[in-house]
Every structure is written in C-alpha cells, then in structure tokens.
Amino acid sequence: MNIELLNPFGQQDIPESVSTTLEDWAACARFNPTGRFIAAGRFDGWTTIWDLDTQGVLRSLEGHSKTVTSVSWSRNSRYVMTSSRDWNCVLWDLETGDRVKTIRFDCPASGASLHPRNSKISVVVLASGQCIVLDMRWNRTERSELMYSEANETSSWDGDDGPSRPSTSMTVARFSPDGTRIFVGTSTGDLLVFDLRTKQILHREKVANNAIIRHLEFDRSGRRLAMSSNDRIVRTYEVSYSPLTMEPLHKLQDKIGRTQWNGISWSGNGEYIIGGAALKAAHTIYVWDHETGTLDKILEGPREPLQDVHCHPARSSICSVNTAGLIYVWATVTTEKWGAFAANFEELDENVEYEEREDEFDIEDEEVLKKRKQDREDIDVDVTSVDDEPESIRNVPYYSSNDTSDRTASARWFLEDPDDDTVPDYFPPVFMEDESPDDVMY
Fold first, then answer.
1. Which of 42, 210, 346, 391 is the most exposed, fewest CB within 10 Å of its CB?
2. How far apart are CA 188 and CA 55, in angstroms?
C-alpha cells in the first residue's frame, strides 16, 4: 500500500485529541514497525500486545517479576524483547507466546533494543552504566561489553593488571537502521559510535556538557538522529556515514517552562519531532517542525503526568502512557470528502433536481466490454517475489562505493545465522488460553 495514502504527518494532519484509551498498567509502550500493534511493558512485569483494529489484547506475556523498562520489536513483528528491573531480559516469540531466551544480568536492565535485521542480536544498557551486546546465534549466548576510556578517565579501583573501566556511564543505546553500528549516549553528554562487528569505537561527539543523554531516536531514513538530555534540550543531528560525521541541526526546548522530557519520537516521514513533557499535573506533547525547528503545536490530554510517548510509523497517530498505566492513542479527526471518489463529483449543500443526460444509461457494446476485460487480464502481476527488506533500510544509501566491502562484510556477519522473522507484516495466530498451539486457528 502506498504510505502517502495513509494520511501521514507530512500532509499537515497532526493528531488533535485522544481517540482511544487502552486500559492497561503500562510503564512503556511501542508501536510495531507497521503500526498495527502496540507492545506495552507493565509495572507488574507482564507484557501485553494490543491489536489496534479490535482494541483487544492478542498476547499477555508473563516473564518478569518487576517493572518492564523497555520493549523492542523485531523487523517483521514476530519477536519482542523486554528488559526489566528484575535483572532479566526476555526474548519472546509471538508465534507461540513463549520465551525464546532469558538472559540474566548482575543488576537491573535499563533498556534493550533488538537488531533491525536479526532478532538474535541485541544491545542492552544496564543500571550500572554498562552496555552489553548479546549475540544469541548458533544456540549460544555471547556477551560483549562496549568499552570506552580516555587516558585521564579511568576508575581508581582498576588494578594494574586489570582492564581499565571507564568512569563514564552509558545510559542509552540504539542500532543504526542498517544494523552495522551502535550509537551510545553517556552520562557526561558524549555520543559514542561503535562498530557492531569489531566492537571498536568509531566516533565520539560531544553533545552536551556533563548532561546525561536519556533518549536516542533515528528517523525512518536513518540519516537524522534526535536525542534528549537532562539539560532539557532535544538536539537533532544530520548523520553522514561515509565518512562518519554528525552535523548539528536544531536545539528544541520549552523556553518558557524549561520542561524536562520523558520521551521523544519521530513522525513516520521524519518531518516532525515529538516530545513528551515531564509535567506533574498535565499530559502534554510538543510537536516541532524539523525543517524550521519551530514549535508547531502543543497537544494537551487528560490532566495526568506523561510517562512515555511514541509515534505511529506511517499514520498521523501517537501513543502515550500516563503514570497510572493507561495508554492513550491520539488521532486526527477527519471528515469524509465524497468528492475524492470521482473527479466530476460535486458536493451539494441542499437537494436539487437532477436532469439525466440523453446517453447516460445507454448500454455499452458487448465487444468493447469484452476487449477491455481481456486487456486487464493480460497485465502481468508479480505475485511470487517477496521483498523482506523494510523500506527504511532498502532506500537508504548509507555507504559510498569506497566502503561497500565494509558494509558487505558487516551484513554478512550478522546474517550468518538469520532468525525466523521472515514474514512481512507478521500477524500472530489467535488462540484461546485453554488451546494448545496445534489447535490454533490461523
């Protein structure tokens, strides 16, 4: 389906009000890559998968004993990874509703993100300030810590013979949309870029002076990056991958109230940046135009604090979570325009008497109809090939001809043992609680 027909933000239709309220006890929520489902991590450790068409729960996943801190979808929505304060990360298979893997750490997990091309690879940020890359291919789990240190920035407790551990804490991490690099924010305002295959640091960008970077979000194209820090500023950057450079674009903030941000997100086509305000008695979402950096609109919801926010990947819709766990789905109020169904259709304010044309109801020649039908049947339609690569990855020329070999080597590395998430726009089978997977109706 043509995404332009889905009425995205680019057509100046910004959500105006809450259209649906999902009654949950959510701490965080994320749309899946197509926007059909919402995964909600709850305060009680459960994870619920909501179907927005029916506003019902498809899956209730019990796997944690404490609050879920993040949820992450695989590229086609078959797998979901959750992190929790109970020191565990769980990879779920929505085909059966069972755990694929449970990984335990030595401290609470602040967030986890699945690789955009292979759900067997993920990056996890721990409350201790460590960033761990999990490689779960070939039926084993390999952990690799991303290390960063400067000559004058190491902890005093490191022994002479032991590895130097950086005093800088890593607070948030995201894969680049092509899956070859990891962008990591730190507690000192640095943005670090690591190579996924070698785990070596490629680039360091000073974003803010001693301000903790709290959120990192790429737009759909992967060329623009937004980040928020506790200095109450949302910064946007233009990312170039060959060579790797970052050009600052805008600094977005609430200049009057100096609001802190509990979440940021890009609109589906990257023309708007959404910021969820951390106010004590208001559910407020700020919408900025990315091209100009100006505040376009402020959305005001129920008078309840906002905890998390995320944009629909295609439509002009937003989901937000309040501190009580309710999920609000924001949408645009549209009026039906019947004139769009036919070029010569005319909308009338009042009834008028219609005068038919002389040849309006003449029967068309059967030979003409038969020839027209035959012409339509002769058109070749490709119904066999499947494009399993998302548009956001397929259309982004990240690399120049000089580093094609690098890209090929990296892609070959993380696809050596691919996952089973191969069905585009995956829809999980629906079964009752008492049914076994063999009795499922697809």
1. 346
2. 42
User: pLDDT digits over 200-248, tens only?
Assistant: 999 999 998 889 999 999 998 899 999 999 999 999 999 998 888 999 9
Q: How far apart are CA 306 and CA 268, in angstroms?
A: 21
CA distances from 384 to 33, 257, 278, 387, 425 (A): 23, 56, 49, 10, 16
CA angle, corner 225, sides to 313 and 69, nearest 5? 65
- Residues in CB range of 398: below 8 A, 6 or more apart: 176, 178, 222, 241, 242, 407
Interior CA angle at 233 toward 227 and 234, to 5°? 35
The pTM score is 0.80
Kindly report the backbone phi and psi dihedral angles of residue 200, in degrees, each rounded to the nearest multiple of 5, phi listed first: -95, 145
Look at the chain and count its residues.
442
Q: Residue 85 contacts by C-beta under 8 Å, 6 or more apart in sequence?
A: 66, 67, 69, 108, 109, 127
Q: In terms of C-beta density within 10 A (0-12 exposed, 13-18 middle, 19 or more buried), how is residue 148 classed?
A: middle
